[in-house]
Amino acid sequence: MKKGFALSIAVGCTLAASVLRAQTWPQRPVKVIVPYTAGGTTDTQARIISERLSVALGQQFIVENRVGAGGAIAAEFVAKSTADGYTLFFAGTTQFSTLPLVQKVNYDPLKDFAPISILGTNPLVLGVHISVPAKTLKEFIEYVKAHVSAALFASRAGLKMTHIPYKGAQAVTDLVGGQVQVSFGNTSDMIQHSKSGKIKMLAVTGEKRMPQLPDLPAIAEFYPGFRTIVWNGLLAPYLTPKAIIDRIAQEAARAARDPDIIERLNKMGIDALGNTPAEFAARIRSEAPLWRDAVNAADIRQE
Question: Do the beta carbons of residue 174 and residue 199 sit within 8 Å?
């Protein structure tokens, strides 16, 4: 038998086996790894899509929270898991676009994962502690301008101010407690604390106002072109069979069109998406320069 012919047979058998595994998958429960604690925005979305996949695919999709290092622990766990469709990652923008730029991580966000589908996207809300004497974005801008002299003083005095990046929801917690005066947070978190009177919401980071918060201006109204939208979605370890990836993506797209799920996400300030694996991968690549510029502007150093 010629080597080329033998190689063709081997490749054909491998592809056939891969297709067969995909057709019979899932035969046991699937773990959905979440990088944050239970009850947050990311975790809630993970449970919504896991419920849908459990019904649609006839096996339990079990959410497992692996917390720590801003999500790097969960990401590394998934990256090193067997690429058989039984371990998935429900992650967010942080683990793929910003975390690898600000600290050392033991995974490659572009090479170690197979994007499946983004379930939802949302802008962030600019919130300030109640002690900040500003009720509107315009007043806040003027307030900050009045305090630029502090930065000028620090510079001329030879002082070094270090930016300390927050991981997870701690930033909002410290905003409520007054440890920080300004923060960008998820809509649901900000609304919750705004209702309790502990913070003031001033603006959103989308291209336009949110239907859920029509009185809050978009920062783009003051600075045209300003836009920050974050996502949460499903990924798998790299080399997970394409047929499995496509099957999950199809169900995620169906979920994103379901009126009940759309309403549940909408209440959290999230827009349902349900895009394709190719679209998801393209989004991660296209957003990389934006987040790199943001990290550089904040002068955040790798740990």
Answer: no
Instruction: Let me know if 95 is exposed, middle or buried by CB neighbors in 10 A (0-12, 13-18, 19+).
Output: buried
Compute the distance between CA of residue 227 and CA of residue 249 in angstroms, rounded to an integer.
Answer: 27
Summarize the confidence of residues 86-95 as an average pLDDT. Answer: 96
- Residue predicted with more confidence, 274 or 177: 274
Tell me, what's the pLDDT at 59?
98
Contact, 45 vs 265, CB < 8 A? yes
Q: Of the given ranges (25-39, 157-171, 185-199, 286-300), which has the lowest mean pLDDT?
A: 157-171
Residue 203's DSSP bridge partners are: 126
Integer Cα distance of 117 and 111 in angstroms: 17
- The CATH number given to 125-221 is 3.40.190.10
- 30 and 88 Cβ atoms separated by less than 8 Å: yes
Query: Residue 189's closest CA among 206, 174, 179?
Result: 174
Q: Looking at per-residue confidence, does 296 or 115 come out higher?
A: 115
Distances (CA, A) of 70 to 19, 81, 168: 36, 19, 6
Annotate 108-118 with b (16+ C-beta within 10 A) or e (fewer). ebeebbbbbbb
DSSP 219: G
| Global pTM value | 0.83
Distance of CA 248 to CAs 87, 116, 182, 234, Å? 12, 7, 39, 9
Give the helix/strand (H/E) hosting 187: helix 187-195
The fold for domain 3-122+229-298 equals D-Maltodextrin-Binding Protein; domain 2 (3.40.190)
Tokens of 101: 């730029």
Residues 6+ apart with CB under 8 A from 107: 72, 75, 76, 79, 80, 100, 113
Q: Where in the chain is the domain with CATH 3.40.190.10?
A: 125-221
